Structures are given as structure tokens and as C-alpha cells.
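Bug: C-alpha cell stream looks shifted between consecutive jobs. Job 1:
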Amino acid sequence: MSANTATPPPLESIRDLPAKSQALISAGYEPGAGPEAIGNAAEQLASWGLIEEASALLTRTGVADLQVSPIFRARRVIGFLKNSKLVGELSALVSSGVTPNQILQGRHDSLVYERRGATKLLIVLPGAGDNFFISLNVLWAYLRRLPLSTVFLRDSEDLLFLNGVKSLGGSYDATIGRLRRLREELGQPELYVMGSSAGGFGGLVYALNLGARAFLGLSIHTDLSPESPLLRMKYYIRRELFERVPRFMIDTYPLVAAQKGAMRIKLFHAEAQNVDRLQAMHLAGLPNVDVEAVPGKIHDVASLLLAQGRFMPVLQRFLELPEGPNDRGPAD
């Protein structure tokens, strides 16, 4: 890797971004910045519509071809935005101040984009860092083209959403009740829930309790019971989980089995990511559960799907929408 001689973007282009995004971008331009910091900076730039700056950072630092997870993800996001012709839309969204990552800050932990007359409602539970591996900004730039209403949630307590969302009542039961009422207010649309990484376990529990039509999980855990023999990542063995949300330190297998295939469940994991593989395969064989391995070994399975050009087709199949380009307008 060559020395970092990339020129930082003008201050005015990033000064209105969240402080965390600014910090990640700035770290990527520091002299001696490593590939991971550069990749994180490039992905942040792309997520806020600064595509040319993101590409230039990867190229001028000589890291563009490295097989490092943040670099890989940044290249995938840049390529997707260019190929899907979403760059202009994303830039316009950022300028208008209505992107999820702009609103889901500080006291904001839930966000509803309502599309009048939509017959589908999607609830998104992102992972740690408020990302669905790719940023919520990029995800929303695509989802807003589809004929559905969308709810983004943020886990401000780092409890896998199992203590609920403060703006929706501040407890799990209150949050589930508020989401049920929202569905009623929207005319009882078909409900879909998707979760990634740290949002996946809670997402599956939410989907089961809300009677969702389908659940999509990317690199999720399915069994957090204390007696489970399954490997799990360190994030899921923290003491505060067992102290603050002990009722949810459970195995979801019996819950999924009890619904007898009423909800369609699709789980993705990287083929060589052993923990994700074991946790996903735990539900394999149950009615209406489909587990798919994607070639690769990183936790970030969304980037692997993007690399194959499959991420958006996967979303369309999950939402039971026609596959292919979708030029429908934004949510009202």
C-alpha cells in the first residue's frame, strides 16, 4: 500500500454529516491510515453520495484491490450505486436531510416512511452501528422505489432490540403493541421483517410475535439459550443481555416450529463463516425455512450478495415483488 496522499473532501461537503460519519471519513485521510480505516472512510463517503471522492480515496491510496472486509464492502457499495443509477437520488436525499442515518441520531430511534395506498409494510432492524451491513441511506435509496411503507428501528441500548424501542413505548411489549397499531393505521398491509447481524435475533422474535408474512435474516443468531451448545459471537454473550433481557435468552427453534410454516423464513450466511453457518443451520429443515450459504468467509454477507449482483433481487423475492429494475417513485 502506498502512502496516503489522497486529498480530503472539502469541509463543506461533510460538515452536515453525523459526527460519527465525519470521524470515520477523517480517519481514512490520516497519514499512515491502514486499509480498514480507508475502507470505512470510502464506504461512508459513498453512503452519503460522495461517490467520486470514495473511488478516488481507494485508488490514490493503492488499497482498492485488497481483500479486506471494509475495502470489499466499499467497492461493492460504490459499484451498486453506479450500476443502479442511484447516485443522484442518494445525493438529493442527503441534501434534503431526510435520509435514515440523518434522522436516526440522538433521541430518534424509529422512523416511518409511509407510502399512501401501499399493501406491504417492511420493518428493518439493522445491526450494530445502525447499518444493514450497507448503510441505511443506501438501502433506503433503493427501498423508496418500491411500493411499500418502511419502518427503520435503531437499537439505542445495544440489547438486540429485545428491550424495545424508546420512542415506541420503551419496552418490548409496548413496542410490539405500537407496531401492531401502526399496521392497523396503515390499513393492515402484509408485514415483512428483515434483520441483519445484531438486529437479526430480535428481528426474528419480532416477526414471530407480529405475525409477519416473511422474515429475511443476514448473518443472524437463532439460539441464545444459556444451555445451547452452538458457538456464538462475543457480542451475544455479554452479561447485560442475561441481566436485562433474560426472558429472551432463548432458542427460537421451538417458536419457529410451533408456527408450522405460517411465516416464510430466508436466512443467508457466508459459507466459511462458522458461527453464522451453525446458527443459521440450526433452523434448517423446519417448514418454510430456507437457509442459503454464500461463497465467502466474512460476516458481512450483504457485501457478498452485492458482489454477485444478488442483493436487490433477494430483497425483491423476499418482498414478493417482480424482479428487475424498479423505477417507481419515492414514498409519499
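Job 2, same session, no restart:
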Amino acid sequence: MKTVNDVKLKKPTKDESGEAKEFANQYLKNVTENQIKVMCPKCNMKTTIYPEHIGRSSCEKCNVLLKKVEDNKTNGEELKKGDRVRFRRVVDPDDDKIIMVLLEDPDGGRVLVESLIWDSLNPTRVLPTSELIKVSKPRPDRT
């Protein structure tokens, strides 16, 4: 009877190890390409999940269902420098009255905006593009 010490392990040949590496690389490529970007609508935490998990995955902190994110797009429209936008979701009572203009093209799901409050000093800030909706024309009460 053979013991463990009697059995010699065979080293993989170059061809076998190359095939394994190629298989692993292809697998990782498929995993990363098939995932979609999602975000928690409450805390803005972003991550990626598989498409089959949409509608079932929730944020660990907020226990809210994750929503799909479309980078640099709102309602299917591409955002670009100079566009007028407003908040997608009203949190404070005056949020629906704030109109902002994009000071730069979106990058990585975020963009620098300037709030148009018609004062001598308009505040600027960086906001996620998923929180913004493009405004087609200025509000009638603002000229």
C-alpha cells in the first residue's frame, strides 16, 4: 500500500498553467463586465451587483432597496457643461425652487454645480449626477 510520502505530485506544465491563468482572467472579465452600478437613494452609497439581484439587494446601513445608476445621465439625457439642472428628490421645502448650472462636464458620477439664487455670491458644490434632473428652460418666476 502506498503512503502519502510515496506519491509524488506532478507539477503543471507551462501549457496547463497558462490555460488556468487564461481561464481565470476570462472569468474575472465576465464577472466585472456583467455587473451593474447601483446606489442607495437614502445615503448615496454606491456599489456594483449582478443584474439578477436588482429589486432584491438593499443597503446594509439604511435597509433601502438599491437603485440602478446611469452615470452622467438623467432621464436618458446626457449632462454637459452649461446645462441647467434641479434636484431629482425634494428633501427640504425649498429644494424644488433651486436651479443650478453645471460648471464642468460630469466626471465619475459627480459634477460641480453653481446654484442660481440671484445674489452677488452664488454657492458652488459637487453633487452626484444621479441626484439631478435636467431643466429644459428657466422657471417663469425667475428671469
